[in-house]
């Protein structure tokens, strides 16, 4: 009996040693107790990590694309104001409305980026509506709506209609005279040559209001004095320009009543609003695409990170 008990004790101690050695081997080799992660889940987890790494660059790009909206608002409000533009009373109101819209887009865009985890879909809808409105305003300023857009403020046909109106033009030409546009041209006329008037050296207002049209073939004396030619127009292929008769050498008259002066002023205004329309179209599209990519990336992250 004693021998049997001893044998049992030896067997138990041997089993205990074997179990201990097995556990130590598992601990040393770091063998997992659970089964290895399935490949589909591992791929989804890796995709989630990759998408998470793209979120910050997308958010940064979206923020950078919103900054030009703020700068454009400052430029419109404080920096760029063409002389005599305020006489067309609708334009200052339109400009102020665009400034407010640009600031709202900047604030809402960055608010959506900051709170995208809580207001993902509503934020995208709000910012998209604002950007679509800005896009439509940009198309309007570029004159893309050609069907009777004379009633749309800021459009090319609206500008032309307002400037060529007699009441508005009487006020505009007085404003142009008091802004000393032609007098400033006189102060730097020693650098100008007669051919400068035909090569586009002057601004549209300077060439249209301060000098006669080149078709009149007047003799250049100085920047505001041109001697009319006595020869008759015999070439029937050369069109007659009424501005040749309207031009006066009096500094208070010059060509302020000329059609060319009106066209020069219209060209100046169209250039400003056309550039603004192009800016609104391009930047609205870029910011809209950036927000859409940010939305897709966030949805992808939530799907694979769940």
UniProtKB/TrEMBL annotation:
TM spans (from-to): 54-74, 94-113, 120-141, 276-297
Q: Which residue spans adopt a coiled-coil conformation according to this UniProt entry?
A: none
Record carries keyword RNA-binding: no
Keyword set, alphabetical order? Membrane, Transmembrane, Transmembrane helix
Compartment(s): Membrane
Q: Which family does it belong to?
A: Belongs to the tetraspanin (TM4SF) family.
Q: What is this protein called?
A: Tetraspanin
Please report the organism this UniProt entry assigns to the protein. Buddleja alternifolia
């Amino acid at each position: 009996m004693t021998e049997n008990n001893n044998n049992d004790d030896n067997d138990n101690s041997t089993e205990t040693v074997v179990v201990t050695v097995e556990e130590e081997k598992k601990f040393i080799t770091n063998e997992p107790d659970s089964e290895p992660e399935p490949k589909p889940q591992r791929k989804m987890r890796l995709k989630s990590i990759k998408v998470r790494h793209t979120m910050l660059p997308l958010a940064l790009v979206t923020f950078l694309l919103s900054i030009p909206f703020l700068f454009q608002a400052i430029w419109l409000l404080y920096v760029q104001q063409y002389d005599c533009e305020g006489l067309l009373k609708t334009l200052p109101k339109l400009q102020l409305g665009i400034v407010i819209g640009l600031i709202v887009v900047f604030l809402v865009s960055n608010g959506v980026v900051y709170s995208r985890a809580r207001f993902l879909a509503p934020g995208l809808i709000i910012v998209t509506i604002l950007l679509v409105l800005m896009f439509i305003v940009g198309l309007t300023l570029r004159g893309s709506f050609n069907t009777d857009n004379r009633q749309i403020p800021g459009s090319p046909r609206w500008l032309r209609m307002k400037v060529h109106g007699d009441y508005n033009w009487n006020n505009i030409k007085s404003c142009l005279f008091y802004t000393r546009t032609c007098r400033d041209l006189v102060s730097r006329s020693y650098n100008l040559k007669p051919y400068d008037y035909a090569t586009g050296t002057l601004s549209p207002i300077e060439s249209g209001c301060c000098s006669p049209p080149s078709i009149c073939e007047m003799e250049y004396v100085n920047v505001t004095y041109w001697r009319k030619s006595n020869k008759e127009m015999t070439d029937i292929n050369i069109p007659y320009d009424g501005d040749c008769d309207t031009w006066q050498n009096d500094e208070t008259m010059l060509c302020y009543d000329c059609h060319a002066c009106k066209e020069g002023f219209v060209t100046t205004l169209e250039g400003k609003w056309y550039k603004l329309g192009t800016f609104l179209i391009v930047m609205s599209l870029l910011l809209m695409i950036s927000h859409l990519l940010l939305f897709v990336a966030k949805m992808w992250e939530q799907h694979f990170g769940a």
